[in-house]
Amino acid sequence: MSTVEVFILAIIQGLTEFLPISSSAHLILPSAILGWQDQGLAFDVAVHVGTLLAVVLYFRQEVANMAIAWFNTLKGQRDNFDGQLAWWIIFATIPAGLFGLFGKDFIEAHFRSALVIAGTTLLFGVLLGFADIKAKQNVSIEKLGFKGAMLIGLAQALALIPGTSRSGITMTIGLMLGLSRENAARFSFLLSIPAIAMAGSYLTLKLALEAQAVDWSAMGLGSVLAFVSAYACIHYFLILVGKVGMMPFVVYRLLLGAGLLWFVLG
């Protein structure tokens, strides 16, 4: 990979991992449109490490509180909401893990195309817009409940289909369940931590088994760029979504989906 490709793809990964516009779609598009070669497993591992570090560092206080409270629940102390939230996130991650384990190879073989991305970009963009317009409640994360957390977790499993957007579909369901925009985004980001860790671990294991050559300089640069762009994205997205909502991202998805359809069918 050239330095330009590393720079562009790492920034794309960092920005789109947490925006409701699909990181997988944007990483596939350069190869589909510009003819770039696939970035390879090593680079995928690097950018996953960067985005994982960004979200953990940004929510370091919440993560630390949940970790401590979770260990306390093992000792029988269950009156702390942080401990409950940790269990919700663990159980809500299971559907994506199972779907990835049994369906990832099939999805990669049949759904990594510009046409599929166009369709899912449009479909889930419309759903996000509908949720943003119709969901006027302001339910706190505490009121979400285990059932609500699991519904968001089930929705997250669909994000393995390119163009769906993990953050987009989880925020959509969160809004439909009555969460405020900020709380829907915050829960989505916390839920992303084990999801990104699982994906990164899977890719690392696959890389080790295939014994591919590794360009360490590209991996290092990609990881740093993904970290910086992801951290900035989380910070400014939480500010922006509280002021203008999801509609700018809905419009972007609709334009992107229409453009992809024109590119594929034109």
TrEMBL record:
Q: Which organism is it from?
A: Colwellia chukchiensis
Pfam families cross-referenced by the UniProt entry: BacA (PF02673)
Q: State its location(s).
A: Cell membrane
Q: What else is known?
A: Bacitracin is thought to be involved in the inhibition of peptidoglycan synthesis by sequestering undecaprenyl diphosphate, thereby reducing the pool of lipid carrier available.
Keyword list, A-Z: Antibiotic resistance, Cell membrane, Cell shape, Cell wall biogenesis/degradation, Hydrolase, Membrane, Peptidoglycan synthesis, Transmembrane, Transmembrane helix
Lineage: superkingdom: Bacteria
Q: What is its EC number?
A: 3.6.1.27
Q: Which family does it belong to?
A: Belongs to the UppP family.
Give the way it sits in the membrane. Answer: Multi-pass membrane protein
Catalytic reaction list: di-trans,octa-cis-undecaprenyl diphosphate + H2O = di-trans,octa-cis-undecaprenyl phosphate + phosphate + H(+)
Query: What residue intervals traverse the membrane?
Result: 6-29, 85-102, 114-133, 145-163, 184-204, 216-239, 246-265
Biological process according to GO: cell wall organization; peptidoglycan biosynthetic process; regulation of cell shape; response to antibiotic
Q: Which GO terms describe its cellular component?
A: plasma membrane
Q: What does this protein do?
A: Catalyzes the dephosphorylation of undecaprenyl diphosphate (UPP). Confers resistance to bacitracin.
Q: What is this protein called?
A: Undecaprenyl-diphosphatase
Q: Name one GO molecular function term.
A: undecaprenyl-diphosphatase activity
Q: InterPro entries, alphabetically?
A: UppP
